[in-house]
Amino acid sequence: MRKNIVAGNWKMNTTLAEGVGLAKDVNEALKNATPKCDVVICVPFTHLASVAAAIDTDKLGLGAENCADHVKGAYTGEVSAPMVASTGAKYVILGHSERRQYYGETSEILKEKVNLALAENLTPIFCIGEVLEQREDGTYNEVVTKQIEEALFDLTAEDFSKLVLAYEPVWAIGTGKTATAEQAEDMHAHIRSVIAGKYGKEVADNTSILYGGSCKPSNAAELFAKPDVDGGLIGGAALDAASFMGIVNAFKEIFSLKR
Questions:
Q1: Per the structure, how many domains does the chain have?
Q2: Cα 241 from chain centroid?
Q3: Is 233 helix (H, G, I), strand (E, B) or coil?
């Protein structure tokens, strides 16, 4: 059975001291809690080792926000998958729309990053999604299908099963707009059907697909109640422990309605 997951993406926010403090706050909130989902925080590279030492990684998963498409070498400023794994992190976000848009990451680059992350036993949280123009012109299903096929469909079924996918309607990131629960469900169901077409129904049914577009405590339960929405990749709301935990706790509200 696939996992429910709430993962925070801190992006380029918090100093080291602020980040460790935030991680400790989330860790403390989880100490005596029994969440109905896995909880992960993905933090800046500079924070990874310090946060790993400050939290209970059995209760709170730790991830990076990216990794390089090379193992080592003369790539000044890059951070490799082995470096990420050496900090104690277990997850890495790959293919985020901001990486695609601002840094020109292509499917070929992402394919290599996924392979390198898997080689280090990191769990990629692989992002896919359409921009506003593609939503409005009706090509969004084709766009997302292409993103999956080009970057991921060279993987074996065994390796694909190690991924978490995150659907991010790019037009809803940081804009205050949110896809309706019905729009999110429709896309998540489409993504699952694309996976099933390649790897079969069992792999598709066991793949966690997160929603990543302006998810907040106020709308999380409605989104997570949908049968193909397995949690969220959380941006702004992850920068406040109470808001983040409000989203985590949304699963308690709807757990009885889930699988």
A1: 1
A2: 18
A3: strand
Region of 88 please: left (phi>0), alpha (psi -120 to 50) or beta. left
Q: For residue 117, what are its two tokens?
A: 């992350």
Q: Tell me, what CATH number does 72's domain have?
A: 3.20.20.70
Is residue 143 a contact partner of residue 104, using CB atoms and an 8 Å limit? no
- Contact between 4 and 233 under an 8 Å Cβ cutoff? The reply is no
Q: Are 84 and 116 in contact (CB under 8 A)?
A: no
Tell me the whole-structure pTM to 2 decimals. Answer: 0.96
Q: What is the mean pLDDT of the chain?
A: 95
CB of 109 within 8 A of CB of 150? no
Which residues form the catalytic set? Answer: 96, 168
What digits encode the pLDDT tens for the residues 114-136?
A: 999 999 999 999 999 999 899 98
Is residue 175's pLDDT more than 60? Answer: yes
**What is the residue range of 172's domain?**
5-257
> What's the burial of 23, exposed, middle or buried (CB within 10 Å: 0-12/13-18/19+)?
buried
d(CA 200, CA 203): 6
